[in-house]
# Entry
Amino acid sequence: MSKVLIVKNLRAGYRGQEVIKDISFSVEKGEKVVIMGPSGSGKSTLLKCLVRLIEPWGGTIIIDGTNVMNHNVDIRKIRMKTGFVFQSYNLFPHMTVLRNITLPLRVVKKYSNKKAEEIAMSVLKIVGMEEYANRYPLQLSGGQQQRVSIARALAMEPVILFLDEPTSALDPELREEVLQTLRKIARRGKSMLVVTHELDFAEDVADHIILVDQGIIIEEGPPNEILYNPKNERTKRFLKSIMRRMKNSNS
Amino acid sequence: MLDLFFIIDLIPDILKGLMITLELSIISFIIGFVIAAIFMPARIFGGTLFASIVRSYIEVFRGTPLLVQLLLIYFGLPSLGIKFDPMTASILAFGLNSAAYQSEILRSSLKSIPESQFLSGESLGMSSLQIYRYIILPQAVRVAVPALVNELVTLIKESSIASIIGVVELTRRGEYLVATTFRALEVYIAVAIIYFVICFLVSQSTRLLERKFRIPGYERGGG
# Structure
């Protein structure tokens, strides 16, 4: 199998403070990798660094065979073939759902209006939002908005989908619809790198789980090993804390 | 005694100045907007020489009285060999002055659009120019509409200052009538009524514009 993403010795931070300290991992084609870790551990920064939404300090990032860190690489070409889903959806509120998806297809991929609309409708169908094509984002629930933003990312036919805590901004009762959508996309064989605290989702979907704390990988492996038989003390503590939180939100 | 019927009789005569008042304020508004739009990149990116020039420009025009700016342009500049007729001098003074205020309006509207919108566009492979054109500006303009309409209302009222250098707009018309009728109270009430009605109509148009440009679902807040 070929690797869609290779990260080597990545370092990054803000205003002189190092947030990511030497992280290396890779994602195979079709593989689902979940990143977990306490808040403030640098997971979101890590994800944003991969397509240089935040400029990394150093290291190597190779996406689909192209070195992202290369000085003369056109980063927009890389972003065109990666999908990014944000915690707060970040749809464009002044455009309909349909236009949210067709805009990048038309201006970035230079597709015709007709072709862009066909693609948009087909991805909306995948996330079950085709009936809402002519609505505006703020007329939708958070879960629906997040499904649209997943559709927008899918429409670009990305080689890998990056998801940054896609359910964290949602009320518990809205999370399941988004997770179902993501499961469906996972089954279609899309390569995914997901930052999430959803243990059930990680268990069903992930091929590999990476635990990040204080800017380094503290433990990694297949879900049953990480979730049921963690070796690292910090991993155990972290898992206990999310299970406690889950119990609280369910009761 | 105050003669109400006399006020009504005066209105048609004063209205002859209306076109000049509107011309003054609307052309100045457009000049101000164009300059403010040219200033915008400097205000967004900052840090350049152009940006500091723009900042000084805004400070100077906001920090000195409009009347002084008008007098400088009309009476001051001729000493340097630059002469304008009263109308042109007024439009210039109001336009340059309004540019400073409109530039501030545009800047704060732009700043009100969250950074995440930019990030979202970037993540889809859009260029900065595309992001501004399709995502940031259309939203910023909607935010700016009420403040811009307010600026136009301000200009309509401030344009009465042009009467001082002899532009025959609404206020100057009134002054003429006072000179012939000696009824200052009735004349200036009539002038005030006309200004009020126009300004009221213009500010009400904000509502129409806001409805037209409204982002659906916005009034309910985020999901």
